Task: inverse folding
């Protein structure tokens, strides 16, 4: 993947944080851990992991966990620099539809979302706008 030096530095900083977040995932039903690392405007990293529930609809994804935590900590919507999503059990991960909608509401359309599975060479970089084209919202 050809990334700018700044993007590569973000990727390299966020990857170990997302891996650590995935290790904290609570996924006894699916055995599908996912971790997210969100880079804030002030260069802090906020982690999120998926937390499952026996009633699957009550499960929360890593991406939403990181974003909701950032908002709860006082970070402004659309101020985030990047997010990296990691899942060790697949070659490549991609956010679900619910996460894409939340990203659309809380992140800038041009914010980069790095998606990585166990085959790091297969990693993909998308913008929020690319993840949810034709999105509805404000």
Result:
């Amino acid at each position: 993947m050809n990334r700018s030096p700044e993007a590569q530095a973000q990727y390299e900083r966020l990857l170990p944080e997302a891996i650590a977040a995935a290790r904290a995932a609570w996924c006894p039903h699916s055995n599908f851990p996912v971790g997210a690392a969100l880079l804030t405007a002030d260069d802090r990293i906020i982690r999120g992991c998926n937390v499952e529930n026996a009633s699957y609809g009550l499960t929360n994804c890593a991406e939403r966990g990181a974003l909701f935590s950032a908002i709860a900590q006082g970070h402004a919507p659309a101020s985030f620099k990047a997010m990296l999503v990691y899942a060790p059990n697949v070659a490549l991960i991609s956010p679900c539809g619910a996460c894409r909608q939340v990203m659309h509401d809380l992140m800038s359309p041009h914010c980069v979302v790095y998606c990585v599975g166990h085959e790091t060479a297969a990693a993909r970089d998308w913008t929020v706008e690319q993840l949810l084209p034709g999105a509805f919202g404000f």
